[in-house]
Amino acid sequence: MTVVVRSSRLWISAFRRAVSKRRDGLEVVQQQQQRASLGYAAAVREEEEDEYQEYPWANAGLEEQGRGVQWVFLGCPGVGKGTYASRLAKLLQVPHIAMGDLVRQELSYATPIAKQLKSAMSQGQLLPDEVIFRLLSKRLEHGASCGESGFILDGFPRTVNQAKTLAELAEIDMVMNLKLRDDVLVTKCLGRRICAECGGNFNLAQIQAEGSANSPAIFMPPLLPPPKCLPKMTIRADDTEEVVRTRLRLFYEESKPVEDFYRKQGKLLDFEVAGGIPETWQRLLTVLNLEEKNASQSQLRDASRKKMTA
């Protein structure tokens, strides 16, 4: 079994070895399944069932791995990676790790890493991979000392070099690639709001997108804030249509090599988001064979509430 948590020195050494390696040139030819003439929704269900059978992690009990799952969640901005990754992390009792959160947390400290991050950000530079892996190492080492096992990485890795380095440091079991129509993504991003006081995330957009031969109809109700938060709603400065569409274009250019990297290993699972959180969550549980685990935990929560109110 791959050891997940190593010392920072070993992580950095592995990083340097990985980025210096050349690609071995081995490629696995992937046969693309053609959509049958069953209509989009039926074709999506059929593809999900076929993919579900291909993944050993989907059919085996999670406990048989001897540790928590080690998953990666990919997907374009606004697709809901954080929402579903955090829900699954809670269900599977593993940490949900978003690199953006680690960076923001480190910036609040007066550390050498924080100074390096601030310097790169002030000059508009990409954050160095070595620094990113040091942050990830630090987080996993802390988690291991607290008894954590496994993880769900949110939106990372973003490049093939990062994916190769991560492969040397931890055995990734599965990569979930969330997908959503561009027109819906833009509407979702433009509807995002944040409470300036409590930091809660909300969305004012009510999405009713018509279906076509190549895409399903999508209905997503708004996620409205409570009355106390309404006067304190703020909008992200980069949530404009022009910026959102630019981010999407850049994301597709950058993400394809990473998707191909994991697809060739048989670890990538494309998942089409075709509704709001309640509908998508249930479909996600079905694909991951986690319906019984979710139902069991729900029963435990209900029993606990009854005891508290008795």
Automatic annotation (TrEMBL):
It comes from the Eukaryota. Belongs to the adenylate kinase family. It catalyses: AMP + ATP = 2 ADP. Keywords: Kinase, Nucleotide-binding, Transferase. Pfam families: ADK (PF00406). The keyword Lipoprotein does not apply. Its EC number is 2.7.4.3. PROSITE patterns: ADENYLATE_KINASE. The keyword Lipoprotein does not apply. InterPro entries: Adenyl_kin_sub (IPR006259), Adenylat/UMP-CMP_kin (IPR000850), Adenylat_kinase_CS (IPR033690), P-loop_NTPase (IPR027417). This is adenylate kinase. It is an enzyme of class 2 (transferase). It comes from Sphagnum jensenii.
